[in-house]
From TrEMBL:
GO cellular component: mitochondrial inner membrane
Membrane topology qualifier: Single-pass membrane protein
Protein's job: Accessory subunit of the mitochondrial membrane respiratory chain NADH dehydrogenase (Complex I), that is believed not to be involved in catalysis. Complex I functions in the transfer of electrons from NADH to the respiratory chain. The immediate electron acceptor for the enzyme is believed to be ubiquinone.
Annotated source species: Urochloa decumbens
Name of the protein: NADH dehydrogenase [ubiquinone] 1 beta subcomplex subunit 3-B
Family statement: Belongs to the complex I NDUFB3 subunit family.
Amino acid sequence: MASGKGLNATGEFFRRRDEWRRHPMVGNQLRHATPGLGIAIVAFGIYLVGEAAYNRLYRPSGDHHH
């Protein structure tokens, strides 16, 4: 029984040492640090696609630069 008690104490020791991994600020730290970054990236992507489409459709005929 002494070895079972030792393993239980060891398991409890490691469980207490790993509690910080389940803390909400550890898993979502980047998301909380940069609010709105995902929306900004999507909006910038839409802008780039729109600008490329505009340049393709309405490019002046004398402009041959790429």
